[in-house]
Amino acid sequence: MPITEPLAQPITERQHLIFDADDTLWENNVYFEQAFDQFCDYLNHSSLTPAEIRDILDEIEIVNNRIHGYGAVNFGRNLSQCYLRLAERAVEEHDLHRVTAIAHQILAQGIELMDGVAETLPFLAERHELTLCTKGDPDEQNRKIDNSGLRALFAHCAVVKEKSLETYENLANVRGFDLSRTWMIGNSPKSDINPALKAGLRAVFVPHERTWSLEREEIQDPEGRLLVLERFSDLASLFATPL
Fold first, then answer.
1. Where does the pLDDT of residue 100 fall: very low under 50, low under 70, confident under 90, or very high at 90 and above?
2. Is the pLDDT of residue 6 over 70?
């Protein structure tokens, strides 16, 4: 995906930088993938492959996420429904407890910052106004923000149920952002990049090879307001506004 020429020019003014959290600032989806692998082992289906089980779980998650949102607790609900649908033996109470526990163990995971975040984010915070915008369960997400040690670098942290065009419009309006100097930075085309571009923001896409499948879609950038960077640390060069 090419870097468009207008955005490749040096940035000399103070910017509003909005950051995604999960899989942009710290690892997240890898723990859900590990839990899914354990779920498949426990289900031990005689004919369905993990990919086929994943397709069925995706169907359940698409419906439930609209109602209950995201996070490890809701993932436990989704796994339980998937187990009830696919189990080839009588389902006992301890089976559902076990499946739920597989998901809830994600809550005990420590925070593993993405490469370059610990060095780059403080550099950016000295030069620009930083906002964090993450979707999910408020308790889970706020716990991760606190445990990351990054909260003090952000002027504002927002935990929302879903990221949409309206989410970014409202955030920009409430915070008084000049859209021409506002950037959404994240790894998810569906939640971070496309709705932010539709809302009139600029965007920086930092791909993550293990981005959740339901967050993948083709990026739409008809007005050339998108940059693609290979590494989080590349943001320091892009936004190296003099102090």
1. very high
2. no
Q: Which residues of 119-130 are buried (b: 16+ CB within 10 A; e: fewer)?
A: ebbeebbebbbb
The letter for the amino acid at 135 is K
Q: What residue ranges do the domains of the chain occupy?
A: 5-26+112-238, 29-108
Residue 161 pLDDT exceeds 80? yes
What pLDDT sits at residue 9? 59
182-186 and 16-19 beta bridge pairing: parallel
What string of H, E and C letters represents the secondary structure of 30-98?
HHHHHHHHHHHHHHCCCCCCHHHHHHHHHHHHHHHHHHHCCCHHHHHHHHHHHHHHHCCCCCCHHHHHH
Q: What is the mean pLDDT of the chain?
A: 93
> What's the fold here for domain 5-26+112-238?
Rossmann fold (3.40.50)
